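Module 6 notes. Inverse folding takes a fixed backbone as the condition and produces residue identities as the prediction. Think of it as a translation problem where the source language is geometry and the target language is the twenty amino acids. Below is one complete input and output pair. Work through it position by position during the lab.
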């Protein structure tokens, strides 16, 4: 069975977690998988699209095509699976109007013509179900073989950590005044940002670390508490909780905004905390700062959540089942 995976880049996190990490497992199970990248020039696009007949399945990750371009793709491909982990049918957080007729049109046109759709969470599934009944949720997954548990929580300081792309720093920025208030009570608190861009504070010590794949596990283990703030909007409803899963993969507890899949992964007061306003963010961070035992217990419970439902080991077989079923139709 030959499957062509069409993705943006080898470096994009979403591509790595939604596609690339599954390929070794798929190949072991007899899938002839090949990676292809979205092209800009029409000559290169047409050249690739004209080869689609030689594949049993085209597996598209995340991109929305114009109706004309997708019409040609659909004409050439035998079967198509679509995988997405963002609310692509809406504009991103911070937009004055989240509704985009152009995005919605592309999304509706494509979804109604897919053989199967894989969404990253239930909200995204509900959007796809408006146009296609062949939809399932396979969450973003973590390869736990890459991550060991954090061993030492004790020390002279407590590090609140945030890891992500610069496009999501806008969610962290409103927490800076809260960190500054906490710093006034606990001078041993510091903030670590792992990204390619950073924020500043005149009062809170901020450790600025450039993200790299090689250092990712070490950086995650340097956190004592992980945070995932969001705004409560349609775009955030489509988020798939990768930051939380990464924190949990090394046994670090989480404080998050209870939006979208965050509510499913984090059980408030069990393996982390929800925070919906400034008082809750301050109070729940303080609880974890003050209680090393609680941090350890919640982090271990978070790791178990990943092991049970969000691990590569669990979900690789689900991806394989979808591919096999679609190929037989």
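Target side of the pair, the amino acids:
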């Amino acid at each position: 069975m030959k499957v062509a995976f069409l993705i943006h880049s080898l470096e994009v996190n979403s591509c790595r977690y939604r596609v690339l990490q599954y390929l070794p497992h798929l190949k072991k199970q007899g899938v002839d998988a090949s990676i292809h990248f979205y092209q800009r020039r029409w000559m290169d696009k047409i050249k690739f699209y004209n080869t689609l007949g030689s594949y049993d399945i085209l597996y598209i990750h995340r991109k929305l095509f114009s109706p004309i371009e997708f019409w040609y793709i659909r004409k050439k491909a035998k079967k198509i699976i679509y995988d997405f982990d963002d609310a692509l049918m809406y504009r991103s957080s911070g937009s004055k109007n989240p509704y985009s007729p152009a995005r919605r049109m592309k999304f509706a046109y494509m979804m109604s013509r897919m053989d199967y759709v894989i969404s990253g969470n239930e909200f995204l599934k509900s959007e796809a179900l408006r146009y296609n009944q062949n939809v399932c949720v396979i969450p973003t997954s973590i390869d736990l073989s890459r991550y060991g548990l954090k061993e030492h929580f004790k020390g002279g300081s407590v590090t609140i950590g945030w890891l992500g792309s610069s496009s999501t720093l806008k969610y962290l920025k409103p927490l800076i005044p809260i960190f500054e208030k906490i710093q006034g009570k606990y001078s041993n608190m510091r903030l670590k940002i792992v990204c390619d861009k950073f924020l500043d504070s005149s009062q809170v010590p901020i450790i600025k670390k450039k993200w790299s794949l090689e250092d990712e596990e070490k950086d995650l283990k340097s956190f004592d508490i992980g945070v995932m703030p969001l705004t409560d909007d349609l775009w955030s409803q489509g988020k798939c909780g990768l930051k939380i899963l990464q924190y949990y993969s090394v046994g670090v507890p989480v404080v998050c905004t209870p939006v979208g899949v965050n509510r499913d992964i984090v059980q408030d007061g069990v393996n982390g905390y929800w925070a919906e306003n400034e008082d809750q963010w301050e109070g729940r961070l303080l609880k974890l700062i003050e209680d090393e035992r609680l941090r350890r217990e919640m982090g271990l419970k978070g790791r178990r959540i990943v092991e049970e439902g969000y691990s590569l080991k669990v979900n690789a077989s689900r991806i394989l089942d979808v591919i096999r079923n679609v190929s037989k139709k």
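Reference fact for the lab report: The radius of gyration is 21 Å.
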